[in-house]
Amino acid sequence: MECERCHATMLEEAFEDIWADSWTTRFLGWRCLVCGNILDPVILANRSGPSRDPRNGVRRRHNARSL
Ligand SMILES: [Zn+2]
Q: How many angstroms separate the most distant Cα atoms in the chain?
């Protein structure tokens, strides 16, 4: 995956979306090593379809390599 901003290499990373106390989604996205740009499946899906704002939640970065 190449960053669309600076064209540097992006790292695959695990993220967590916490929408409510009991509702957590884990997914894989990409983070740019240089500019910190983040791409995730939600962003990619929103680009191809009509702009539909999902529920607002707290997005917490989770580094898979720290496990
Ligand atoms: Zn970048």
A: 37
